[in-house]
Amino acid sequence: MTVQFKLPDKGDPSDVLQLFPNYNLQLHCCRYWWLQHWEFKELSFPYWRIYHNSCEGAVILYNGKEYALTPDKIVMIAPNTSYSTRLHNHAIPETGYALKGGRINASVTEQQLLTDRCILHLFVHFNIGLPYDNISHGVFTYEVSDHLKKKLHVIKRHLKYEHTRFSFYSSLAIQALISDLLSGLPEGRWNLITRNSRILKVLNYVENNIGKELTNPILAKQAKMTTNAFTRLFTEEIGTPPQKYVKKKRIDQACVLLHHSDWSIDEVANKTGFADRYHFSRIFKVTTGLSPAKYKKEFEMK
User: In this protein, which residues make up the domain named HTH araC/xylS-type (predicted)?
Assistant: First the structure.
């Protein structure tokens, strides 16, 4: 977590320094697709997701509850939340998935797509960094106010004509939408994973150095503690040993890169701190149940 210090301006009646927590917004993608199939038994990714559909017919299933995606609702899903999806009354496959869709553009009208029983689906993927990406799992729904409706209109209008480059105005609309939804979460949801300043420093170090060597002695040095004392404190505060946490963060970052970049598996392995492609592939498959190549093929954004 970055904290910004604001020095009092000349003439400011207050001489008290103000502390403002800062989050690091990383936008991975923003797309507007038509869908005829969207049946997944399990989706779980290490980043936030926003969904808004311009018509009825799609459902998210989470913790035994169905969340209908309708024009008057926006859904936001916290990182690492496990959920299922389906369109209409389509059966969800026991293995694999059913996905059929593509980008909505100006060459076809939305009415034509609706006539073909397509779902018009806006989605945004993003992270906001530690400690706020560690919020408890959940699916959150919001009423589409006139204020939010204007932002959705700006974003969708842009995506119909251009899907690779965003204007400053449309980018602001995306970021404002994210800020509005995040600020709508209950305050209690933002309780930090730990309030120990030494452990928070280590978490930030891991986040910013995921491609480097991150042994317990190196992390303990960041906390200015002996290795044994640090390992005990970290495990008590976070609920998992340091190296298990580091491995999860490496795999989380690998998932983001495989999903949202055109980097090769070798490049992803190197960027996330694995010794080589083979070591990376073995750990990745044990953790996710898929090889990196299959994961990239199934989830890479086009």
Answer: 200-298
**CA 100 from chain center: how many Å?**
22
| Domain final position from 135, 155, 190 | 190
Query: Using DSSP, how many helices (H) and how many strands (E) does the chain show?
Result: 10, 11
| pLDDT for the residue 45 | 87
38: three-class secondary structure by DSSP: strand
Whole-number Å distance between alpha carbons of 85 and 55:
16
Low-confidence ranges of the chain (pLDDT < 70): 1-15, 300-302
Query: Does 213 reside within a domain?
Result: yes
pLDDT computed for residue 301 by the predictor: 55
Q: pLDDT tens digits for 90-111? A: 999 988 788 999 999 988 899 9
Q: Count how many domains the chain has.
A: 2
Question: What does the pLDDT read at residue 4?
Answer: 61
Q: Are residues 263 and 204 in the same domain?
A: yes
Model pTM score: 0.83
- Whether residues 184 and 213 fall in one domain: no
Q: Give the angle 96-45-264 at the CA atoms, nearest 5°.
A: 80
Q: Exposed (0-12), middle (13-18) or buried (19+): which is 52, by Cβ within 10 Å?
A: buried
CATH number at residue 251: 1.10.10.60
Instruction: Give me the DSSP letters along 14-37.
Output: ----EEEEE---EEEEEEEEEEEE
The DSSP result for 99-114, as a single string, is: EEEEE--TTS-HHHHH
